[in-house]
Amino acid sequence: MFDFLCRLFTGERVSKLNMELLVIFGAVVVLLTTSCTTEWQHILPGVVTHYGEIGRNITLSCNASSSGFTEWRLNDSQIMETSDMRLTGKDLTIFNADPSKEGEYSCHSPETGSTFTRVSLLLGYAPGKPQLLCHSVSYPLNVTCFWKLEKATNLPTEIKIIFSYETELVKACLSTETLQDSCTIKDIKLFSEVPYKVTVTARNPLGSRSTMKEFIVEKIIKPDPPTEVSLSPIANQQKKLLLQWKPPATWPNPQLFLLKYIIKYWKAGSNTPRMIEISNQTSYTLSGLRSRALYYVAVAAKDFIDNGQPSEWSPTVSARLWSRG
């Protein structure tokens, strides 16, 4: 097309058809701003994304149509060779890359300024090995697995968690660009000797890491802490305190799936708490306490037949024993 236009402009015989084509192609000539020479502008679609690891050396290559040196720019400002950037022919090497080196890099013809390549440089880290914990806080309804990455990757990162039982895929959860999350499976198989298998994989442009665990449901029971814990003096009882609480709100049926409770209490100024374990009740009277002393108490819940592990401790409450004034 360009040779044809050049012939039109250089005085070759112009027919009526050529005149019509000249009108049509004239606008194209203006838009492309080309001349009737063999050096055409190198036009590339879009910007290429390049992912690099922070702290590593990164080399960007220019897709130049001619040999020799090229001019590199960062965000349209010319790059000069320094101790942390080296220009070698068509290549630009960035040493010990840090986030300040992110941006849009472009290489150009030194003579005409024509753009050969545009590269968006994004820096971050490959994902570390995910941490994975699985608990049944709502036994026997479900199991929830919690995952967490060691540190932010600074790059788009996809997290996939897969549950399987024997050869059957139970559930898959997908999450992106977050440091921690969870995934819950329902309709769990109870009292099975065959373990569930769960795998969590973190993947981004710099790599992927996985963690796999197996579990038997009854061995990972861990209730949430008891709620509405209160401690109060008892009138006319100088050595007793009344402790009350409610079962964890996430425990589905405390009357059918019983819980036991562990009570931890200590006097102000003491570093050695006393422990009491009681079954299937939501109040307890602490006795044998020292008159007028201030006491602190926390409560944990556990499966009635000791499956799994105790909950975390409830928030600590405190009260001073009753006094005649």
Highlighted features:
mainly beta; disordered N terminus; 22 strands; 46% strand; 325 residues; 4-stranded antiparallel sheet; 5-stranded mixed sheet; single chain
Overall pLDDT, averaged?
86
The helix fraction, in percent, is under 10%
Helices and strands, in order, run as HHEEEEEEEEEEEEEEEEEEEEEE
Task: Choose one word for the global shape.
Answer: elongated
Main sheet overview: 5 strands, mixed
H/I helix tally = 2
The value of Rg in angstroms is: 36 Å
Unreliable segments (pLDDT under 50, ≥5 consecutive)?
1-44
Computed structural class: mainly beta
The number of strands is: 22
Could you tell me how far the N terminus lies from the C terminus, measured between alpha carbons in angstroms?
106 Å
**Cross-sheet strand order for the largest sheet:** 1-8-7-3-4
Classify the beta-strand content into a percent band.
over 45%
Topology:
Elements: H1 2-9, H2 16-32, E1 48-53, E2 58-61, E3 71-74, E4 77-78, E5 85-88, E6 91-94, E7 103-108, E8 115-124, E9 131-138, E10 142-148, E11 158-165, E12 168-176, E13 180-186, E14 196-204, E15 207-215, E16 227-234, E17 237-246, E18 259-267, E19 274-279, E20 283-286, E21 294-303, E22 317-320
Parallel strand pairs: 1-8
Antiparallel strand pairs: 2-6, 3-4, 3-7, 5-6, 7-8, 9-10, 10-13, 11-12, 11-14, 14-15, 16-17, 17-20, 18-19, 18-21, 21-22
